[in-house]
């Protein structure tokens, strides 16, 4: 049985203040709340964005309770759009990272979580990538820290295609909870 995705946004920490329940993608949340300091994800995996129209910093949230914005590694209390990650990926994951734009240079194939891209592959930058299976979260720092970028099935010819301002990578993980 497939359950709809559900996320609740709260203006204050620890699930206090004005709240908004959401069960579908929303390109502009500003009419529902002015700031966001805690979130409860009842079901599904969600990407929240600091700006409207799915722009700005991304934060990928799995089911759980986030009592303050530091728990999702936010840089501010701004959440202006969100969308549910669709479970269309099955149970396998495959990611290929390239050292140059347009799939150039050496490539590494990945099928598991990597806490340090440098320690595992001697790679500090990825300029392009191809996701053939699964959905992934790419982080610009090791140990699943820093800016987050959702990578879904598809081709990314350059790092700006996944929303990064620079090609730096530190770690990445598979999205396994839907």
UniProtKB/TrEMBL annotation:
Q: Which residues form the signal peptide?
A: none
Tagged with keyword Repeat: yes
Output the SUPFAM superfamilies linked to this UniProt entry.
gamma-Crystallin-like
The record's section on PROSITE patterns has:
CRYSTALLIN_BETA_GAMMA (PS50915)
Key words, A-Z? Eye lens protein, Repeat
Q: Which InterPro entries match?
A: Beta/Gamma-Crystallin, Beta/gamma_crystallin, G_crystallin-like
GO MF term (any one): structural constituent of eye lens
Domain named Beta/gamma crystallin 'Greek key' is located at 5-43, 44-86, 134-176
Pfam families, alphabetized: Crystall
Report which superkingdom the organism of origin falls in. Eukaryota
Biological process terms in GO annotation: lens development in camera-type eye; visual perception
Tell me, in a sentence or two, what this protein's role is: Crystallins are the dominant structural components of the vertebrate eye lens.
Q: What is stated as this protein's family in its record?
A: Belongs to the beta/gamma-crystallin family.
- PANTHER family for this protein: BETA/GAMMA CRYSTALLIN, CRYSTALLIN, GAMMA M6-RELATED
- The protein in question is named Gamma-crystallin M2-like
């Amino acid at each position: 049985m497939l359950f709809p995705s559900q996320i609740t946004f709260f203006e204050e920490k620890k699930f206090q203040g004005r709240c908004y329940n959401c069960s579908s993608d929303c390109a502009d949340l500003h009419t529902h709340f002015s700031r966001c300091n805690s979130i409860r994800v009842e079901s599904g995996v969600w990407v929240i964005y600091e700006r409207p129209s799915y722009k700005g910093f991304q934060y990928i949230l799995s089911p759980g309770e986030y009592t303050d914005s530091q728990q999702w590694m936010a840089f501010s209390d701004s959440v202006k759009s969100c969308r549910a990650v669709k479970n269309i990926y099955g149970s396998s994951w495959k990611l290929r990272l390239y050292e140059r734009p347009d799939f150039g240079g050496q490539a590494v194939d990945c099928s598991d979580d990597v806490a340090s891209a440098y320690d595992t592959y001697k790679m500090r930058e990825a300029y392009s990538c191809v996701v053939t299976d699964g959905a992934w979260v790419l982080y610009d720092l090791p140990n699943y820290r820093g800016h987050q970028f959702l990578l879904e099935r598809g081709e990314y010819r350059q790092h700006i295609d996944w929303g990064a301002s620079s090609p730096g990578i530190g770690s990445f993980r598979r999205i396994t909870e839907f």
